[in-house]
Amino acid sequence: MTLTYHGYDPLNRTKFVGYNTVVNGGVTSYESSTSYEYDAGNRMTQIVDSAGGTITEVYDNLDRLTSETTAQGSITYGYDNANRSTSVQVAGQPQLTYSYDNADRLIQIAQGASSVGFSYDNVNRRTSLTMPNGVSASYDYDGDSRVTDITYQFGTNTLGNLTYSYDQLGRRTQLGGSFARTSLPGAITTAAYDAANELTEWNGTEISYDANGSMLSDGSNVFTWNARNQMATLNGVALQYDALDRRIKNATGNSFLFDGANAIQELSGSTVMANIWSGGLDELFQRSDSNGIVVPLRDGLGSTIALVDPNGNIQTTYSYDPFGNTTTSGAASMNPSQFTGRENEGNGLYFARARYYSPVLGRFVSEDPLGFRGGDANLYAYVGDDPTNETDNVGLERKWYNLGQGYRAGRDRFDEGAGTQFEIHVYKGDKELGIVKGDLGWIGKHGEAAARPAGIPDEVLATINGINVNEMRANGSLGPKGTKDITGALDGAGRGYLRPGRMLGVLNVISIITGEMAAAADEKRLLAGRKNLTDVDKKRIVCEHARIPERPDYVDTTLGPMPDHAVGCARWQANGDDWM
Length: 580
Fold this sequence. Notes:
By secondary structure, the protein is mainly β. The longest helix is centred in the last third of the chain and has 17 residues, at about 460-475.
């Protein structure tokens, strides 16, 4: 059995994690280890990993990440006064700049003389996307905001299109258009499973596992695993991961510089092999490598269906069966971004960040790192066996919530640094509107604070806030209801996001509490420091959750001065329904 040691500082922050702990003659050793450093603002500033190198992070006075440095390189970030990302700079590349409209919607990403442009309709659905080579995509939707048509053009030339139909439950029932090239998988003669949902035999091939439930061989590939249950070698080639579990070296020996979760450069040693221009998670806009510049065309799942050169000519096409078995036609390409935007390893596997996915088997080759916390009894299942409607770009089971009124949310859990974290991705139909992450509230792609997407009904916001609070309680960042593990003041709840920052374990009390009842009041009644919670039941919820002591004086407590809500709670508890 592999033992993992966790060490903490006096503030209960994770300081050290040792993997595969061995004690021999009073001396403790580890297969690998990770240590964490924090600044006075409780921000993680450095992570030193014995296997993956050092990550150093720098923040500004508003807790925004301004630079990240790894062994692969450095990235710097800029922001405007509205906390929106305005620039990303990588050494050796022209700076990426971001522009927004008055509704806080991203309308352009520029790099040198090239740019990507975005247009939206009145309900914030993307209606067009213009790529760096001039190829444009237009999007049509039905009444439930589900995409029904994607058409690609270069000038007046239509390159192709995709159409989608749905049933009453929102499931895709038909795919059409000139780019529709879905194939069917081959017939399976035999398959066998054990009580742990391990696939032990497939089409006459025996499949073996280690004691952790990780596959050792699928009949074509051979795997070994490290003490963190990461794939250590693939067919004898060593892989490498950094302290944030990002794979920084693949089976070809190339390494990667990351901008958040997306690779922004591919390197061989110190030589840049490819520059990768992305938007959202796995949303590739352009790849430039020794074969030239290509722009991907994507389907409704985010899968690359074609690569287009700077002159608007289709060079390479891809087709997939429902679970992602991939067929490539046309010119050879080094582009690995294929099924759902993930990396095709070229050996029948896709790298899905937390683990590897086999489209041949239609399942992951190791268990969900979150175990049953991921929400599925089958720890190997891929998107609940619904690959024509759902995607999993992080290798962790996504739990879906129906928010009503055409909205839905997908909750992703993942291990980040010192513990389990989560993100709630909010959609209307097929269009992702934004991301909510714990006490950070609404965030952008770099983890910076972002404005709440416009137009989301109060009832839907209330459900999102409830999910967010429940997830914080589940991962321990928010104590059980009625505890006083809270600090800070309401900041920006009326604008739809909480106090910006990347702090671990620092909670924003009244913001979180008010978030649970946000749908019950409009924005003006929830602004910070206002004594205008006129409904007694709402006041009771605030006070009950905060467990405010029954006294009005907070000035001399260790928590420091509290906002008017807290003082009001104390006075209200002492004076009944008379809100002071």
